[in-house]
Amino acid sequence: MSLFKRLLNPKSHSSSKKDGASKYVPQKQLPLDEQFTYNFRQNGGKFLYCITPQEILEAFDNILLENDWYEKDVFCFDTDLTNRFDGFNLNFNKSVSSKFYLTKCESLVANDGAILFSSNQIKEKKMHEIPANIVVFATTSQFAENISEGMRIIKNKAAGKIPSNITTIKDFETESKEEKDFMSYGSSTKNLYLLLLEDL
């Protein structure tokens, strides 16, 4: 609108300001779970939301079926997970040459759809040393707004002994390489499935 029109018709200018939201008013933020889900899927991750432990087993079975991972070697450090998924005829071991890696995580970082790990899950391994296929088991109580909050959660849980090798992964396989942005250049791309159990 030109300066003259604004001077001659001040009402139209003030009404247009009321209609549009002010840049100083904070925008409504999505809940953490929706924010994480959107960003995680934008990054190329595969998301399976489950309400009961039985649904987790069914979803895991579907992942094995989709990828033909029955009777394969599984890289896993966590005895809780080996017990939970014991009935699938898998060979749990600590060999990085396994078909896929089964793990838990520290937090699900909502603002960039990343998954936060520490030495509690990956020991002293680097991400490029871990199998390209990953299945992560997590719960809805593990959402964190950002990495700082995720770090605070780790610190609170650690009770003085903070784990080492804290890292995130947010670069997942996508249909085309054009979907990657320059920020993910050089990072280790993973084919990642997230099994998320409702626990709140």
SSE order and pairing:
Layout: H1 3-8, H2 10-19, H3 32-42, E1 46-50, H4 53-67, E2 73-75, H5 79-84, E3 91-93, E4 100-103, E5 107-109, E6 114-117, H6 119-122, E7 133-139, E8 143-144, H7 147-158, E9 167-169, E10 191-197
Parallel strand pairs: 1-10, 2-3, 2-4, 4-7, 5-8, 7-10
Antiparallel strand pairs: 5-6, 6-9
Task: Note down, in words, how this protein is organized.
- By secondary structure, the chain is of the alpha/beta class.
- Helices cover 32% and strands 20% of the residues.
- The protein has helices at residues 3-8, 10-19, 32-42, 53-67, 79-84, 119-122, 147-158; strands at residues 46-50, 73-75, 91-93, 100-103, 107-109, 114-117, 133-139, 143-144, 167-169, 191-197.
- The longest helix has 15 residues, at 53-67.
- The chain is globular.
- It starts with a helix and ends with a strand.
What's the short story on this structure?
Helices cover 32% and strands 20% of the residues. With 200 residues, it is of the alpha/beta class. It has a single domain, classed as 3-Layer(aba) Sandwich (Rossmann fold).
Q: Note the main sheet.
A: 6 strands, parallel
Form type: globular
- Beta-sheet strand percentage? 15-25%
What is the CATH fold-level name? Rossmann fold
Beginning-to-end CA distance, first to last residue: 52 Å
Question: What spatial order of strands do you see in the largest sheet?
Answer: 1-10-7-4-2-3
State the CATH superfamily name: NagB/RpiA/CoA transferase-like
Write down the overall mean pLDDT: 84
Count of discrete structural domains: 1
The parts where pLDDT drops under 50 for at least 5 residues are 1-8, 13-18, 174-186
Oligomeric status: single chain
